[in-house]
């Protein structure tokens, strides 16, 4: 057991890192809260900063684009989570099987996670989804169908596909690690008892992955709520793909008022915390089970 002296030494050594982390988080948050109550126009010297009170908050939340942007954000997050979790489980099971070149295959599957979101969106936009020269357009023509103009005909589906492609390796990596910790003797005993593959998956593998799945959902949700680059590069917020983060960006550009954007940032923080608290309750129940 750790002594009081060793615990004190551990706290002392951790203190600088904790202090820097708090400063890194609290300073931007404090500045955001401060500017959200002011009218601040850094690019317009003719307009002096002034106190706005809650006007920025009222203007932002009463905008006709506010609630649709929140809905769009949640739909994209939900769609990406469903795809990455389902395909992540299947890929993790597949990669856990003995195969030739297993190490190389795992590296190739995980590689997209290290691609920058902007580059990923550009690749999908120009190489895959281009209605004239994209690979999907050639595939459509090969089967005698008319190519789909992805980013205008099915914009939400396109965004979900692009973001899912980027986050699928992360989910696969976490779930593959969880599968490798599963006791193979349980599966062998179930197989000897005559359990079918689907039964073994439903009663042994899936319950074992429940904790890993909840962790994947929690971490991905935190990052997906701030999705911006993929939308900026592909649709520019058009065709109903404007998320809350992108709406904040547009409001700052239109009004050149940092205070209005800061108020939107506070709303984004509130939304993220509501979702995080809800997910933490789910994670806590699964981890305690």
By CATH's scheme, which homologous superfamily of the domain at 39-99 and 168-288 applies?
MetI-like
Largest sheet: 2 strands, antiparallel
Question: Helical content, roughly?
Answer: over 70%
Shape summary? globular
The overall average pLDDT, rounded, is 83
Order of H and E elements: HEEHHHHHHHHHHHH
Poorly predicted runs are none
Tell me what you see in this structure:
It is a single chain. By secondary structure, the protein is mainly α. It has a domain at about 40-100 and about 170-289: MetI-like fold. Helix content is about 75%, strand content about 0%. The protein has 13 helices and two strands; from the N terminus they run H-E-E-H-H-H-H-H-H-H-H-H-H-H-H. It has helices at about 5-35, 55-60, 65-95, 100-110, 115-130, 135-140, 150-155, 155-180, 185-190, 195-225, 230-235, 245-255, 260-289, and strands at about 40, 50. A two-stranded antiparallel ribbon has the order 1-2. The protein is globular and about 80 Å long. The two termini are about 25 Å apart.
């Amino acid at each position: 057991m750790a002594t009081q002296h060793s615990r004190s030494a551990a706290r002392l050594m951790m203190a600088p890192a904790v202090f820097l982390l708090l400063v890194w988080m609290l300073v931007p948050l404090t500045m955001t809260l401060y500017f959200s109550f002011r009218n601040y126009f850094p690019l317009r010297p003719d307009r002096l900063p002034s106190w706005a009170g809650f006007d920025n908050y009222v203007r932002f939340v009463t905008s006709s684009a506010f609630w649709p942007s929140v809905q769009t954000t949640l739909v994209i997050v939900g769609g990406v989570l469903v795809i990455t979790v389902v395909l992540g489980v299947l890929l993790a099971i597949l990669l856990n099987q003995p195969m030739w070149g297993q190490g190389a295959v795992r590296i190739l599957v995980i590689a997209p996670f290290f691609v920058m979101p902007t580059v990923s969106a550009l690749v999908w936009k120009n190489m895959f989804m281009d209605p004239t020269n994209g690979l999907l357009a050639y595939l459509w023509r090969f089967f005698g169908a008319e190519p789909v103009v992805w980013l205008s005909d099915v914009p939400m589906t396109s965004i979900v596909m692009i973001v899912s492609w980027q986050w699928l390796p992360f989910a696969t990596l976490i779930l593959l690690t969880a599968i490798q910790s599963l006791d193979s003797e349980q599966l062998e005993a179930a197989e000897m008892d005559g359990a079918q593959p689907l039964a073994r998956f439903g009663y042994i593998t899936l319950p074992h992955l429940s904790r890993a799945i909840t962790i994947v959902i929690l971490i991905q949700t935190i990052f997906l709520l701030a999705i911006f680059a993929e939308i900026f590069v592909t649709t520019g917020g058009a065709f109903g793909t404007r998320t809350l983060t992108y709406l904040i960006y547009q409001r700052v550009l239109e009004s050149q008022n940092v205070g209005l954007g800061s108020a939107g940032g506070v709303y984004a923080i509130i939304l993220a915390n509501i979702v995080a608290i809800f997910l933490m309750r789910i994670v806590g129940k699964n981890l305690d089970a």
